[in-house]
Amino acid sequence: MTDATHSAALARRAMLFCCLVALCEGLDLQAAGVAAGGLSREFQPSAAAKGLFFSASTAGLFVGAVFGGWLADRIGRKQVLVGAIGTFGLFSLLTASATDMHSLTLMRLLTGLGLGGAMPNLIAFVAETAPTVRRNLSIATMYMAMPLGGAVASLIILLAAASQWRLVFLAGGLAPLVIAPLMALFMPGTPVTRRIAAGGPPPVTVLRELFGHGRALRTLLLWVSFFFALLVLYLLLSWLPTLLEARGMSKDQAAAAQVGFNVGGSLCALLMGALLDSRHRRASIVLAFLTLIAALFVLAAAPVQAAIVLSLTFLLGGAVLAAQTILYGVAADCYSAANRGVGVGTAVAIGRLGSIAGPMLGGILVGAGRSPPQVLTGILPVVIICALGTTLLGWGARARDS
């Protein structure tokens, strides 16, 4: 076997494990939401307790993303990734045995630490092991596995009785715990991991990596773009069915539109990954955001007809997830390999703050009496800010050698 063939085989094996981890992460991220109905009937939590339960995982994600990225730059991506997936698998499994809302909330907080540590390292791992000419496509392929994991969580709840809500946490715990030892044995390390093992120079300080060497503006643009991109995504995920029902669509039609949003997102994320690796990189970035702005405008003004709305939500989901793909690719390109973990981890953590702010902003707009079209057009300034930041980053970014 030639060196090139061997390297390609190792890259495929690494990609397989990264997709499996992303699938598990998507399942765990969606677990709380899809299990909410059953656990609410069992524990009868107050609105405040339920809100705390939902927020606990996000708080853990924020801390885990920063710390996990920082640690991976120092001891190796593979080691931290295996530890992260083992952590969220263990505490997801323990969530299934929780006896009250307090223990449920604590377990979700600890699960979030593992989830947060996994995501930035997945991006960095794929960026460092994939062939440079297919780097963005590889990141997009890995990212697509997350909504598939969320679909698995929904399917478990759909097939099981509501009282069996613990099954989704059992599945979300057992799968990572099976995968973690296989990763430890068979997953190849990244070049960064190998340099650390060989006693290479340690990474520079976090602040110098994020803001030194002329990176300050790039880092701030990345943070702003991640924050607003996740804000828009989670606002639409949380409020789109409600807004469509308020415009006169049935519950089933609104649910179908939400499915179209996710399917469009997955397909367009993959397409965007391929375009980012091509000579059409710059044009595709501009087109993605023009499509997002146009889809919001037209959806707000379009007649409430199922075929039209389904087409528009498919397009909207595609544009929103394409923007996410651009950001994940750009984030991997913004920092040197030695500090890519903490750079991407910090950006992902800032994005998690946007995922909290998005549903809250939707609630504020709806509570203020805004109509569904006004809510959709009301987030256009946020989209424009995100578009400008992401376009500036993606326009000049070039893949770095690992």
Question: How are the SSEs ordered, and which strands pair?
Answer:
Blueprint: H1 3-43, H2 47-75, H3 77-95, H4 101-129, H5 135-159, H6 166-186, H7 191-197, H8 206-211, H9 216-246, H10 251-276, H11 281-301, H12 306-334, H13 340-367, H14 372-378, H15 380-396
Helix pairs in contact: 1-2, 1-4, 1-5, 1-6, 2-3, 2-4, 2-7, 2-13, 3-4, 3-6, 4-5, 4-13, 5-10, 5-12, 9-10, 9-12, 9-13, 9-15, 10-12, 11-12, 11-14, 11-15, 12-13, 12-15
Précis, in short:
With 402 residues, this protein is mainly α. The protein contains 15 helices and no strands.
Features:
402 residues, Growth Hormone, Chain: A, 15 helices, globular
Can you put this structure into words, describing what you see?
The protein has 15 helices and no strands. It is globular and about 60 Å long. It folds into two domains: 200 residues, Up-down Bundle (Growth Hormone, Chain: A); 189 residues, MFS general substrate transporter like domains (Growth Hormone, Chain: A, Up-down Bundle). The protein is mainly α. The relative contact order is 0.14. 84% of the residues lie in helices and 0% in strands. α9 runs parallel beside α13 and α9 packs antiparallel against α15.
